[in-house]
Specification:
The protein has about 220 residues and is α/β, with parallel strands linked by helices. It is about 40% helix and about 20% strand. Bound molecules: pyridoxal-5'-phosphate.
Length: about 220
């Protein structure tokens, strides 16, 4: 299948799930996760109408951005953010979904060039009860929201979740429901984004309120 065809299929999955939940499919933004994939397939996706792309590795993303500088894409960063990469991330992306501590938010804010609009960030939250290094624990969300709110170079747009993998639709729903209730507990005027759902669980995520789904494999095929 071509990338354009994959894109159509994913959009249909989004539409069906939104309809099931009585939601407007326009509330769900599709982010194409293109890590490890070539600039050529990204261009195919763009020609088929895709605008939002996400990357996980800074060096790889910068090379692709250079190659695609003639194309007006919106770039999202979704990988772990290391302190020594914050300057590049702050100035080469419009969104960072994976902020999980104040130090990183501060560095992104300070290093974002003032002539750019504030960087959109989400807090990555760890609720899947597995031993993951990444993600703020729910108890720490309120303090982090308060502190991040004082930074002028970033704007807190919402929460991001990467639950542990499970094939069970009902387990997926259960975890995404918890995610949505945290989101509703803390959301404010500027917080309009619930980033959750990947190739294998986007339906459950949308039924439980996702506003951004991050899709790699279903668009570009398996990664090496
Ligand atoms: C790779 C990645 C995705 C895409 O996952 P697929 O299962 O290939 O759709 C989504 N979110 C993050 C944070 C990723 O690193």
């Amino acid at each position: 299948m071509t990338i354009a065809r994959h894109l159509t299929v994913v959009k249909q999955r989004i539409d069906i799930s939104a309809a099931q939940a009585g939601r407007n499919p326009g509330e769900v933004k599709l982010i194409a996760v293109s890590k490890t994939k070539s600039v050529d397939v990204m261009l195919d996706a763009w020609r088929a109408g895709q605008f939002h792309f996400a990357e996980s590795y800074v060096q790889e993303a910068l090379v692709k951005q250079k190659a695609l500088s003639h194309v007006p894409l919106c770039w999202h960063f979704v990988g772990p953010v290391q302190s020594n990469k914050t300057a590049a991330i702050a100035n080469h992306f419009s969104w960072v979904h994976s902020v999980d501590r104040l130090k990183i938010a501060r560095r992104l804010s300070e290093q974002r060039r003032p002539q750019l609009a504030p960087l959109n960030i989400c807090l990555q939250v760890n609720i899947s009860h597995e031993t993951s290094k990444h993600g703020v624990i729910p108890d720490h969300i309120p303090a982090l929201i308060e502190q991040v709110g004082q930074l002028s170079g970033v704007v807190l747009r919402g929460l991001m979740f990467i639950p542990k993998r499970t094939e069970s639709h009902s387990e997926q729903r259960y975890i995404f429901k918890q995610a949505n209730s945290l989101f509703n507990q803390y959301r404010s005027a500027s917080m309009d984004t619930l980033s959750m759902g990947m190739s294998s669980d986007l339906e459950a995520a949308i039924v439980e309120g996702a506003t951004m789904v991050r899709i790699g494999t279903a668009l570009f095929g398996p990664r090496e």
